[in-house]
Write a structure and sequence with these properties.
This protein folds into two domains: 53 residues; 204 residues, no CATH class. Helices cover 85% and strands 0% of the residues. It contains nine helices and no strands. Helix 3 packs parallel to helix 9, helix 5 packs antiparallel against helix 6 and helix 7 packs antiparallel against helix 8.
């Protein structure tokens, strides 16, 4: 009996540390499992919340900001489309080949060397361009003296330059309107945001966020249109000024021969 009791006591002494070691080893594993489970549940909750959100924040702003906000966005899209059209149109217009083609200059020079003003006028009529219109104004007053020719050329040049600059000025108009539309959208979004806050009680966080997004998105939309439009306007304006100065110098070089030209009436 004493041997049996001694064996049980010894077993308890050596078994207790081993059991404690096993429990300590199992505790981190259980904690790690619990952390993984919590992480997995949080990820699932995040995925579910993301699934509940709209696919596109911009889509929500576009169609969730009321009729006025939608109209403002259509106006901003129209301003962007108008800018693209004007950029292409001015790119085609503001070129030496469209304002003062070399073929016209060559033909008129050849006709003026021959002293044939009628032929030079015919070349201008066959190739209507700003420079051709200016030269035609001078050739049609050839019988009235060189001073009258210069006045006619100067008046025609002012008219053609104004036409070119009017086309370019629409880029400046578009660049000024776009940020104003964006600012109007910003004001409209902030009005709606404060209106929601003024209703009392717990504010609708989703509606408030949509209103603020409307304010910021419209500002960005106006700037996205305005900045390229301003740059394009100054680029084409400076290019047009260089071409116009060259055209004026070439025109005066061509009409100087009219001092000694005599037109014989049939």
């Amino acid at each position: 009996m004493k041997n049996l009791l001694l064996s049980i006591a010894l077993f308890g002494v050596f078994a207790t540390p081993a059991a404690l070691a096993q429990d300590e080893a199992a505790a981190p594993a259980a904690a790690e499992t619990e952390i993984v489970q919590n992480t997995g549940s949080k990820a699932a909750e995040t995925a579910a919340a993301a699934a509940k959100k709209p696919n596109s924040e911009f889509y929500t702003v576009l169609f969730g900001s009321g009729p006025l906000g939608f109209i403002l966005w259509m106006a901003l899209f129209g301003a962007m489309g108008f800018y693209i059209y004007l950029a292409i149109d001015c790119g085609i217009l503001v070129r030496p080949s469209k304002i003062m083609p070399q073929s016209l200059i060559t033909n008129v020079q050849a006709a003026m060397k021959e002293g044939d003003v009628v032929k030079a006028l015919q070349f201008c009529e066959n190739e209507p361009t700003p420079m051709a219109n200016i030269l035609s104004a001078g050739f049609m007053h050839v019988e009235e003296g060189f001073d009258v020719i210069q006045e006619a050329v100067s008046a025609a040049a002012d008219l053609e330059i104004e036409r070119i600059m009017q086309r370019l000025s629409w880029l400046s108009v578009d660049s000024n309107i776009a940020p104003q539309l964006g600012l109007l959208g910003t004001v409209q979004g902030m009005i709606m945001a404060f209106a929601n806050l003024g209703l009392g009680g717990t504010p609708d966080v989703g509606a408030l966020a949509t209103n603020i997004s409307q304010a910021l998105w419209t500002t960005a939309g106006g700037l996205v249109t305005s900045i390229p439009a301003v740059c394009t306007y100054y680029l084409y304006r400076n290019k047009a000024n260089r071409i116009i100065l060259q055209m004026e110098a070439t025109t005066m070089e061509l009409i100087k021969d009219l001092r000694n030209v005599e037109v014989v009436s049939e």
